[in-house]
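Sample 3 of the quickstart, ligand iron/sulfur cluster:
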Amino acid sequence: MPASAKRTGATAKVRLQRALRFARTRTRELLMIGKALASTKHPVLVHIIPMRRCNLACGYCNEYDDVSKPVPLEEMKHRLDLLADMGTSVITISGGEPLMHPELEDIIRHIRSRGMIAGMITNGFLLSVDRIHKLNAAGLEHLQISIDNVTPDDMSLKSLKTLDSRLEMLAAHAIFQVNINSVLGSGVKNPQEALTIAHRAVGLGFTSTVGIIHDHKGQLKPLGETETGIFEEVMQLGKRSYSRFNDFQHNVARGKEHDWRCRSGSRYLYICEDGLVHWCSQQRGYPGIPLAQYTPEMRHREYATKKFCAPRCTVSCVQQVAMLDNWRDPQTLKPNLRKPAATQPQLVQIGSTPADS
Ligand code: SF4
Ligand code: SF4
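Result:
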């Protein structure tokens, strides 16, 4: 039985359902890896935004507003169909806050009906037992919550204190995999809290990862001695999860540039609420082309394009995807930079946002 099945407070029925879903998802993930190694022509992971609005306002965040409407379900289905037709393996729903979307479960159902793996990143505040059951029924496979501190402060309300009751609900009722991401780095007042959060996550039967944030100028900055010790300990706690594929973070922790090939725009896509394709959440505006007009040739060009921001990048999900291709096809092209589309907000440059993706 997977460790994730042994969460606290779950009935025997929930544990069985959880073990079955885990086994199915793991099988599909292995197939996804095999397909990605066999061909470079399809996206492996896509982050899609059904809702830019958020119910929180974290001080460091550049990925939300407090006014925008949900993307209509039919439009979301159309975008998901385009992605499925490209051969996409995994869709992660992100935001803003996806739980604010009134038809989120239908979006998840559509992802599964098209054979793609369904994940979600949420702040967790809108979770309830009823909502968790709906997410189970819709077929959600992964959920990630990023927790910034033990008690809420001016910068972030995403604390262990405010979220612990939701974590207990997930431990008792969720049959999908849950990962808790904590953060370290510049601006984090008490690094010891990352360890407290990671221990609580593992104690509840979840996996645990740690993200490293940049300083306020968006530059890599080595962690101090205490933070480095905590980082290594949290990484060790997370060894049974996907964080074992986060080894590049050891470079980030030491403030070293790292050598890798960012395949965003090709193997990884970020689709904003307007349906435009971007390199990632931190480089919105490139290439800024509507998904329906994004051709295989454009994807292949981005595959071979060297990204100027790669050596100092902390966006962990894109780096995990890149590991499938780092061993092959050196990047020889320069970015085809053009003015961002008129509908786009100002281009977002890499900044002091936690790498919670
Ligand atoms: S970090 Fe997440 S929860 Fe906080 S404002 Fe941004 S989108 Fe909302
Ligand atoms: S910030 Fe990172 S993930 Fe985004 S385009 Fe640059 S290198 Fe790729």
